[in-house]
Amino acid sequence: MRIVWIVLLSTLFLTASSEYTNGTKEAIVKIYTTAKVPNYQEPWNSSMRSSTGSGAIIEGGYILTNAHVVANQSFIEVQRYGQRKRYIAKVYAVSHQADLALLKVEEKAFFEGVKPLTFGSLPKVEQKIVVYGYPMGGSTLSATIGVVSRIEHHTYAHSGESFLAVQVDAAVNPGNSGGPALSNGKIVGVVMQMISKSQNIGYLVPVNMVKHFIEDMKDGKYDGFADLGLGTQKLENPAIRRYYGLDENVSGKLIVKVVHNSPLAGALQEGDILTAVDGHNVENDGTVEFRKHEFTHYQHFIDAYQMGEKVKLDIIRDGKNMQVEADLKYIADDMYLVKTTRYDTMPRYFVYGGYVFAPLTRNLIVSTNRNRLKLSYLAGKWQEKDKNEVVVLLKVLASDMSRGDNDFAMWPIDKVNGEPFKNFKEFYEKMNAVKSDYIVLEDNDGVKVIIDRKEAQEKQSAILNKYNIEFDRSIDLRK
Questions:
Q1: Which positions ≥6 away from 288 have C-beta within 8 Å?
Q2: 199: alpha, beta or left, given left = phi > 0 and alpha = psi -120 to 50?
Q3: Phi/psi of residue 315, each to 5°?
Q4: Residue of 51, 95, 96, 99 with catalytic role
Q5: Which residue from 171, 144, 141, 191 is spatially nearest to 28, judged by alpha carbons?
Q6: Which of 235, 180, 240 is closest to 204 using CA atoms?
Q7: 3-state percent breakdown (helix, strand, coil) of the chain, nearest 5
Q8: HSE on the CB side for 275, CA within 13 Å?
């Protein structure tokens, strides 16, 4: 768990002290989480883990925190500043994309005497902030001070997706995750993560992301942050600019891929030049100016919209200026061949005669170093009409029928008895539909694994018992 602990500067002490004594601290919460952590290498197994984090009481009777503080939770307790009693809490809403969560406590006594914290606006560089929370090494509330170093798009460690982030001159320690960062008494961000082996580089989820998340959840359903399903290329090279006939006054990004299920499929073409998003000029490096002299990824002005809304894009096609409208209805998981990092669910799997199969996820990739280069390449690819999920032979459980195959692990499969498949469910159905004596699994390089179907069925039960596996498939395949 990652948190921010900002170094106190003596010249800022009076500013921090006044905020610390105005009732803010009563709204800060310590969060105790017991989580069921999946084992992606042995997907039928899991372990229990306890951890702590921080949060803040906000309007509406919610506790705002990080998604990674409560990810995979099985039991949550919360404790207010100045109290020793713990109250049971439940997750009301969670965005693993934006690393944000809202908790609810049923007991009204928990909120007595608390003035909820309110939201400010996106802070400016050099603006002073105060971070509250419960970092490691202590059970009492901590208040530390710093300034905003810069604001730009950054990869959120929890989801692996890139969104606007606020960098602060702070160290990050376990326990402070989910704590609020305040400026002028209002929340301007939520403590999120750090860069390891760095000095005083911590990150906040900015308040605009928090507001988007809360607005999204007003209908009781989380929709997420939209993805356009576009592959683009920078236009900084003079030769490529001349090739597309762009003069010095025109900037933008070259569209090199439109995913088949993109909301812009049919409206955009490969070779179009994206010049503006929501009326904001796109620079040749793919950035937009979101404030004077401050730039970030053009996705910023797409993230500002809710799912189901529309955003206008300016393009150049064959030297002509055009405008198209994107209907925001898909997230990254709808576009990429390999799903983003999964939480709050057990891994999917299927055991057949000791051969263990699973859909490829980012959780699985980071759980091992086996075949990492090829699998990471697949993780960057887009879905196609006939392929929206990768299936791998996760491992082979040693037995007399699998001799010689035990080195196969994290091996992508492309065909079952010569037939391709679209996803893990279709792979499972094809495996069960085989009536021939042998099942032939094959990758795109022609490498094969051959399973004797009757032998696998005869020895399945004994192999499962030997490895203490209760079910030969995940719950989604048992329905």
A1: 277, 280, 281, 282, 295, 296, 297, 298, 300, 301
A2: beta
A3: -135, 165
A4: 99
A5: 141
A6: 180
A7: 20, 40, 45
A8: 18
**DSSP state for residue 467 in the 8-state scheme:** T
Kindly name the residue from 51, 54, 68, 153 that is annotated as catalytic: 68
Pairing of strands 87-95, 100-105: antiparallel
- Rounded to whole angstroms, the Cα distance separating 379 from 376 reads 5
Q: What are phi and psi of 456, to 5 degrees?
A: -60, -45
For residue 151 the two structure tokens come to 């604001």
H or E segment to which residue 464 belongs: helix 453-466
Within 10 angstroms of residue 372's Cβ, the number of other Cβ atoms is 12
Query: Is there a contact between 277 and 339 (Cβ–Cβ < 8 Å)?
Result: no
Amino acid at 439: I
CA-to-CA dists, residue 182 to 30, 321, 337, 355, angstroms = 17, 44, 39, 53
260 is catalytic: no
Q: Which residues contact 247 (CB under 8 A, 6 or more apart)?
A: none
Which tokens sit at 456? 């696998």
Q: How far, CA to CA in Å, does 78 sit from each of 65, 102, 105?
A: 11, 12, 8
Phi, psi of 461 (to 5 degrees): -60, -45
Catalytic residue among 95, 159, 177, 251: 177
* Alpha carbon separation from 275 to 197, 231, 240, 314, 422 (Å, rounded): 38, 14, 15, 5, 35
Residue where the block lists tokens 């809360």: 214
pLDDT in tens, 347-381: 999 999 999 999 999 999 999 999 999 999 999 99
pLDDT tens for 33-66 read 999 999 999 999 999 999 999 999 999 999 999 9
- The upper half-sphere exposure of residue 182, i.e. CA atoms within 13 Å in the direction of its Cβ, equals 29
**pLDDT per residue as tens digits for the range 383-419:** 999 999 999 999 999 999 999 999 999 999 999 999 9
Place of tokens 């898909």: 330
Q: How far apart are CA 307 and CA 318, in angstroms?
A: 31
Q: Which two tokens stand for residue 324?
A: 């198209």
Q: For the chain, give the mean pLDDT.
A: 92
Structure tokens that stand for 38 in this block: 């999946």
pTM attached to this predicted model: 0.91
In this structure, the chain runs to a length of 479
Residue written as tokens 């921010």? 4
Tokens for 306, please give them.
Answer: 């809710």
Termini Cα distance of the chain: 34
Distance CA 422, CA 413 (A): 11
